[in-house]
Write a structure and sequence with these properties.
alpha+beta, Aminopeptidase, 2 domains, seven-stranded mixed β-sheet, six-stranded mixed β-sheet
């Protein structure tokens, strides 16, 4: 008996029965900058872990269903993840008699990530079905905007979202990636680095960065998450020590002329990455750099870590600072973060910043591993219901900085 034509069904992800099939689709959908190298993502545990730390999340799968010989044959051929949060979309001025103070304007925003369709089932409209169904869930849960991120040269993804789904190109941040060397990176002796408590970190971020675009209103949940390895503040040597630190309130009352801050997120607990497709010559060169770096650590050779096997990633988020030396202080913090990653056996350290952010000049990175033009696309799902609405956020001009939520990495 001839099988009937295949139908495509989009449904909720079932962690008990779908895990292996989803992992298989992830495996065959390697992603990367193109060419002969590709980056394979190995999810650790349940595939929904990539969004589970968000306030509200959903995962959908697409199944091909075929009726054959009186029975039914099903195969998962695609998936999509989404989450919803409240973030800063603009700012307004508060007139309280003490000067004009900018206050954040929040909007409920949805984020799409992990859209995958099996290479053997593309050009069937499956990606469009997954996005459309996810957007229905977004609207049902009150999201005002939806956005997604993709590589600037991923034309298939860009065409799907901008031509078929009504998204528009919005922001072009830079992904900066630094390998973790076999040697420790030197940190300036003119800088003191203090680890802040989650409470102090929250006070500092809300006071200084809450009007930054995409700043999450639930920053406290991020800072207190077990995947957040800490928030670190760089100040001039002699200004503070761990013993003389009296908290963020006192610091903000009389801050030094220059300072910088960043937080570290442990993504290696969620997934591992692996570079595939490298030639034997390239692998040999990378191995040689590691051997030399371990043998002569005082030379500080720029060695290539073992990226051709599964490796972990630490993500730096919440980068900020003030003053003429803030760029140098960020460099010191990045060095500190590198050494922390080395101690924990991590392969690379990465962050994502606006290309206009002056602090980007102080972030060490390898151009070959980085992406100068990541692309965020956005869509307005309905009317803007935010307090102190800024109009249509999709038409706003970019600011100097953006806040990248580590839960969406």
């Amino acid at each position: 008996m001839v099988a009937a034509a295949a139908a495509v069904v989009v449904r909720d992800y079932d962690p008990k029965n779908d895990c292996r099939a989803v992992e298989e689709v992830e495996r065959i959908c390697e992603v990367g900058p193109g060419g002969k190298l590709s980056i394979f993502t190995d999810l650790l545990g349940d595939p929904i872990c990539r969004v589970r730390n968000s306030p509200a999340y959903q995962m959908l799968v697409a199944e091909v269903v075929v009726q054959k010989d009186g029975g039914e044959w099903r195969e998962i051929v695609g998936m999509i993840r989404g989450c919803i949060k409240t973030v800063t979309c603009g700012k307004k001025v508060s007139r309280n008699g003490k000067g004009n103070l900018p206050l954040p304007v929040y909007a409920k925003v949805a984020y799409i990530l992990g859209l995958r369709v099996s290479p053997f089932h593309r050009r069937m409209g499956i990606g469009l079905k997954l996005v459309t169904k996810m957007e229905e869930w977004f609207r049902e849960n009150g999201a005002e905007y939806s956005y997604m991120a993709t590589e600037n040269d991923n034309q298939a993804s860009i065409n799907l979202f901008t031509h078929k789904c009504g998204y528009s190109k919005f922001r072009k941040p830079s992904i900066l990636v630094q390998p973790v060397f076999a040697h420790r990176v030197g940190v300036s002796s003119r800088v003191t680095i203090i680890k802040l408590s989650p409470g102090d970190a929250e006070v500092l971020y809300r006071r200084r960065f809450s009007t930054t675009e995409f700043f999450p209103r639930d920053i406290d949940s991020i800072l207190r998450n077990s995947l957040s390895l800490g928030t670190f503040l760089a100040v001039p040597k002699g200004r503070y020590t761990a013993e003389t630190w009296r908290g963020a309130e006192e610091f903000l009352a009389e801050p030094p002329e220059s300072w910088a801050v960043l937080s570290v997120w442990n993504s290696m607990e969620l997934f591992k990455l692996e570079v595939r497709g490298a030639s034997r010559k390239l692998r040999g060169f990378a191995r040689t750099t590691r051997v030399l770096d371990r043998a002569f650590p005082w030379l500080h050779l720029p060695s290539v870590p073992e990226v051709f096997r599964p490796f972990g990633l630490h993500f730096l988020y919440g980068l900020g600072g003030e003053g003429p030396l803030s760029v140098k202080f960020i460099t010191a913090l990045c060095g500190f973060a590198h050494n922390l990653a080395k101690e924990r056996g991590c392969g690379v350290v990465a962050t994502e910043v606006s290309p206009a952010d002056p602090l980007s000049l102080g972030i060490p990175h390898w151009k070959r591993l980085s992406c100068a033009d990541d692309l965020w696309c956005i869509k307005r799902l309905g009317e803007d219901y935010s307090d102190g609405a800024v109009g249509d956020w999709t038409k706003s001009q970019p600011g100097l900085s953006i806040f990248v939520d580590p839960r969406e990495v």
